[in-house]
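User: quick one, fold this
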Amino acid sequence: MVADHTPKIVGTAWALLALNTLGSAGAKTVVPLPRSLIQMVTMGALVAAFALALLVNPRLRVRASAFLFLLTLLLVPSVISSVHLEVGVGALFRCARLTLFVATLWLLSRWWDGGLTFVRHHIRMYFAVLVLVAAGLLVAPGTAMPEYYGGRLVGALWPLTPPQIGQYAAVVIGLTVLLVLGRRTTGAGAAVVVVPSLVLLAMTHTRTATLGLIIALTLAIGSLVLTSAAARRVFAWAVLCATVAAVVFSSALRSWFLRGQSQENFSNLTGRAKVWDALLAAPRTLGEQALGTGLGDKSLDGLPIDNSWLAVYHEQGLVGVTIVAAMIVVLGAVALLRPPSLPRACAIFLISYCAISSYTEVGLGDASAYLLHLALAASLLAAPAGAAAPLPALLPTALPMTEVPRRRIPRWARR
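Assistant:
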């Protein structure tokens, strides 16, 4: 087994980045937390992450990354559209936050080598968040499952919405299952993480996270089928169990997905379709179509957009949509070109999950957990540092020199 030479401070910086993406708006907590205090904690975590990354990488050594290049390029339409202050001074604040987020990823990219180190940091951080959610459920069950969210699980100690909890649970479950298949963790240790995460995911009643987990995990395990006997067994059993469940529990599954909603409300995605139609029908200037209106709170007239692509179009225009699409395409293409391996399977899971969730969730155009998931995928697809090809020789003298045998001189010639 290859020793992990990544400094522990790198894992701390990664955890602080994840803490920054938790956000400051959500459900009501047991102890009311002022939004200014939450923003101070999350932004302080981002500043601390950047400081730690700079401390551990003072010479600013980075790894070449097409994903980070495109993410840096996304700052251009974000800043240009935000300086007009159409959505207020907060747009510039969000641009500064995104800039610091990207800069920290660049500094941490020095340790992106295609290993699973950052996967373990990712699982630990978000599982810690799930433990906090479970603690809130035990302390105040009524606050953790309020009526205004339809009895769905929320964060009672830290303001987290059901989609957020469902996202964290799905990512933790998927990555842990893949580590088990790759024999990088024990079954007992994985059960401690997977079982409570599954319970919390079911209690959030989040359809996007559930479907994203099933489809993305299926694609990831499918990428290991040709090289892993364990993956083949799990894949076969999963197909069998899914078929039986679809036949036997079809009515129960249908009622779970409807969540007590009418068929009409379910068909328009709980009112999301109306907001999307209004966003697309809103008049825009040529500049707003190209560069957007600036980074905002991902809403239209106070209503959440709940679609990453439309949110990026609204705030960063068609240029932003093109850049975000290029990030997904580049990561997907690199993952398909890599030989089958556990890091590749984890990257496929993360890319697929983010692509599926982007239909009803926002975050691909701003500092968020989804961008952190994609950054983790990029670290898994990075070539090992020792695998880089040497630079070609530019001068003939750079060729390897061989020793020329000495010619024997007769004794009479030496005299």
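User: anything notable?
Assistant: Residues 388-404 have pLDDT under 50 and may be disordered.
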